[in-house]
């Protein structure tokens, strides 16, 4: 199934625009999990099982695995997601960007090794660095546009021909690069005004919107700025606020994650 169709189905099935980010920082795992040999897999499976009916996508961040040489654990988690929750899109967050020949290998890594439905891509090197991903026409190419971090303004906000660079990226992707209808853009929840600008430029294109939760993005402003006329169009990501939600009395980490994911999903739905 095409990434965009799978995403549309997941928005509807789970009544959710929430993307649950899987950023497993071993130093923050509960002690009883951290001591296990397969700690990262256990922890992530616990989060996935607790939130799968609340999420429109899962997004593992590759750095948390690669830094530890734990790619086998990422493979196991991706296999688990594909087997148990095949209806929920799996986004590999890798923010790749390189010359075409190398990009082809990164695309194989994301779509074949990890079996991801979509991957995040840095557009800084231009179209030939993105084109290899588009050859997998059923898969999603999620391109950085207006990132959530403060330093995103250093380059993305530079005025080029009378408008900020991120708007050029949005138009370029929407008008030229999105040949097979598989492209999405990343726009941070920390910049709702720019999110509205991007939405106006790209029609109903899906947007990956990180920055609610730990980065403090405002949910109401995010949804009002980024939703489509159908009240969808976004994968609003939260990672740390869900993964490391402090358990209340009687809760384990997975129950705490579920509680925060439910609150976040429902808060998003209030403004759709
Ligand atoms: O591509 C991303 O996912 C991404 C883009 C961006 O502009 N900002 C951003 O925070 N992210 C990722 O989204 C996640 C945000 O995590 P939390 O701040 O813990 O919710 C991390 O995995 C980031 O790498």
From TrEMBL:
An example Gene Ontology molecular-function term: orotidine-5'-phosphate decarboxylase activity
EC number: 4.1.1.23
Boundaries of every Orotidine 5'-phosphate decarboxylase domain copy: 17-260
Pathway where it operates: Pyrimidine metabolism; UMP biosynthesis via de novo pathway; UMP from orotate: step 2/2
Keyword Ribonucleoprotein annotated: no
SUPFAM superfamilies cross-referenced by the UniProt entry: Ribulose-phoshate binding barrel
SMART domains named among the record's database cross-references: OMPdecase (SM00934)
Keywords, ordered alphabetically: Decarboxylase, Lyase, Pyrimidine biosynthesis
BP GO terms, sorted: 'de novo' pyrimidine nucleobase biosynthetic process; 'de novo' UMP biosynthetic process
InterPro entries per UniProt: Aldolase_TIM, OMPdecase_AS, OMPdecase_type-2, OMPdeCOase_dom, RibuloseP-bd_barrel
Active-site residues (renumbered): 95
EC class: lyase
PANTHER family found in the cross-reference section: OROTIDINE 5'-PHOSPHATE DECARBOXYLASE (PTHR43375)
NCBIfam families: pyrF_sub2
Name of this chain's protein: Orotidine 5'-phosphate decarboxylase
